[in-house]
Amino acid sequence: MLRKMSKINLILLCLGLTVIATSVQTTWAKEVCVEVTGESSNAAKDIGSAKMEATLRAKLAAVDQVAGVDVTSKTKVLNSELLDDIIVKKARGIVTGFTILDGQRTADNYSIKAKVCVDDSTLADFIAEVSRNSSVVVIVELDNKNNLAPADDIVKEMIKSTIGNKLLDKEFNVFEEVTNSAISKTSEGKGYNEDLVRKYMQQYLANVIVLITVTGDAMFKKGEDVGYGVSTPFNTLKLWLNYRVFNKDNLTGKLQVARSGYESTNETSPSEKDAFITGLEKLSSKISSKIVTVVSDTAKKSERRLQLKLNGVKTVEQALDLKTKLQSYPWVVSVEEASLGTFWVVYGEKPVYLANSMANAGIFKIKDFDGSSITADYLKKK
Known about the structure:
The chain is of the alpha+beta class. Helices cover about 40% and strands about 35% of the residues.
């Protein structure tokens, strides 16, 4: 009797687990289907390759639309085969359905219209594969309640000249944004809106966000009585600049504040907006070196050791020549030869970007890659 009851309980337990698992899958996984277009520009040379590229671009356009991320433009540097490999294999089949609705060919272009279905539960995996350790978004949040700040494009240009260009000199990809969004408003006691920070990271496929919050207040206005019947001929502003550098913990992937601080200044000028501009330029220049240092440190912590296996390397001379070529690629820190045709490469970016540099060199055929290794055929010069 006990044995029978045990069997019944076991069956009920299994059924319960099945229901729970089904419920969880339904909750977590959501297939979204959209109609998009994809285009290739090399139809005149190779119609087969053109169709493949147009198909890939349609898949990326679907990911763009579902995730709200501009993946298409920010991954144009990547080889089409590598991107397709990520979509099909590395991101666990992010595209679950693909139907071509229409196709058109001109003298130079080939375009398709397709219905693409995307599993939104795999979006995070895909974005993690193609996001760049070397991409930085510098966001200036203006608290302009007193209408003292200049136009957004002026602020953006100033941040670019004081902070952005210093990051560019270190070979980072830099994006500047000016916003009135309440990113710095408290979210769950954190002192910032985590969802908005993550949104910007996802939008730009970046791993570092620099948030600069600028607040200005008029101390004295032009013509104001400052005492003893004396009127000031200038405007005097008090300007505060708070900054925070966000990155992700390499082990947990959690968002964290790597560094924060603030600066302030008083500026006097006949124009309030001129005083604001002068103060912002002074303060952003003052913090620029601190920001470059913490961003560089973040990139250094993201460096990884990759095993690079090159099939077809037959001589020591070939190995030495390839080692020199590999060391010239962006974000390659060092190259060590483990054996003939096998190298250890310390690399500061995601592996797909090293694979991409190799594929574009014209002497390698990428066979496979993952988080710790790249395998390729060495195409010997004829």
